[in-house]
Write a structure and sequence with these properties.
By secondary structure, the protein is of the alpha/beta class. Helix content is 42%, strand content 21%. The strands form three sheets. Strands 3, 4, 5, 6, 7, 10, 11 and 12 form an eight-stranded mixed sheet that branches. A two-stranded antiparallel sheet has the order 1-2. Strand 1 and strand 2 form a beta hairpin. Helix 2 packs across helix 3. The longest helix is centred in the N-terminal third of the chain and has 29 residues, at 62-90. The relative contact order is 0.15.
Length: 296
């Protein structure tokens, strides 16, 4: 029986906790599910107590919760050592876990990912889609290595501003306002309003407040694709970021709203711990590529 905790055991614990199951963790680690199970079981034998509740999803025990931050640090440090060595011999390597909101994943990340694949072919960037208010939590907890944050304040040193993403009215093409250059939010009062709960509510409320218009959404929709589908079906109208454009069917349009409202997007590593060399390398590449990421 092993007498000491080793990195493979900690890596398995982190992977299962993040993936919510042994099978998904095995895919992430590119090993067999049996290997993951054996590593976690060996860790529990060393510690003398369970670190995971075997349920659906699998979740950490109280002991596992206490261990996880230290396990994440150990795994990240080992990855940093490998990345430094690879960088010393030429080129970034390893894996960077990057979190971003849905619209950023659709409208902004494809271009960045393409550039990173070209510049760093030995580096893997794994994307995690989340809500605006989840991303900072994931980043500081070590669940991800980097994130595109919305309206980040203050900005961590080294963070890369990606630009301003403006709010637009989402309308069917046959809507009377669909051909306007801009839509006053007051002119949407006659339509049923569909509100996405994905993170932009405060921006929308701010636009209505500044216009002096009462904000009374008729429907609250969590999933953005569902909301778009409902607008497409003629159920109502909505307001969403311009980066949602790639998600729209042909007979829906985005029209800028008045008063103009936007959110700022920032690519960054964690504020409370050192960045991995891979994250620092990726962000340095964005800084040296003017215009590579400039949403409007």
């Amino acid at each position: 029986m092993a007498s000491e905790v080793n990195l493979a055991q900690l890596r398995a614990l982190v992977a299962v906790a993040d993936a919510g199951g042994f099978g998904a963790a095995a895919v992430d680690l590119e090993v067999s599910q049996s290997a993951v199970s054996h590593a976690v079981a060996a860790l529990e034998r060393v510690l003398g107590a369970p670190v995971l509740h075997r349920g659906t999803p699998v979740r950490p025990t109280p002991l596992g919760e206490r261990i996880l931050p230290h396990a994440r640090t150990a795994v990240a440090s080992a990855a940093a050592v490998r990345t430094i060595a690879a960088d010393h011999s030429g080129g970034l390597t390893g894996t960077v876990r990057l979190a971003a909101p849905t619209t950023v994943c659709q409208g902004l990340l494809p271009g960045l990912l393409h550039g990173w694949r070209t510049e760093h072919p030995r580096l893997t960037v794994r994307v995690f889609e989340g809500e605006d208010d989840e991303l900072g939590v994931w980043l500081e907890a070590g669940t991800v290595d980097a994130a595109v944050l919305v309206d980040a304040d203050p900005l961590p040193p080294g963070a890369v501003p990606l630009g301003a993403d403006s709010m637009h009215a989402l309308l069917r093409r046959d809507h009377p306002l669909a051909d306007e250059e801009a839509v006053d939010v007051a002119d949407l009062e006659d339509d049923d309003f569909l509100l996405s709960e994905g993170g932009c509510e405060r921006h929308i409320r701010d636009a209505y407040r500044r216009a002096g218009v009462r904000f009374a959404p008729r429907h609250r929709i969590r999933d953005l694709n569902t909301l778009i589908g409902m607008v497409h079906a003629g159920v109502g109208v909505s307001v969403m970021p311009a980066l949602a454009q790639p998600m729209l069917p042909p007979d829906c349009v985005l029209v800028p709203i008045h008063p103009a409202t936007h959110r700022t997007l920032t690519l960054t590593g964690p504020a409370t711990r050192p960045w991995t060399p891979a994250v620092a390398g990726l962000l340095a590449g964005v800084r040296t590529a003017p215009g590579a990421a400039a949403p409007h």
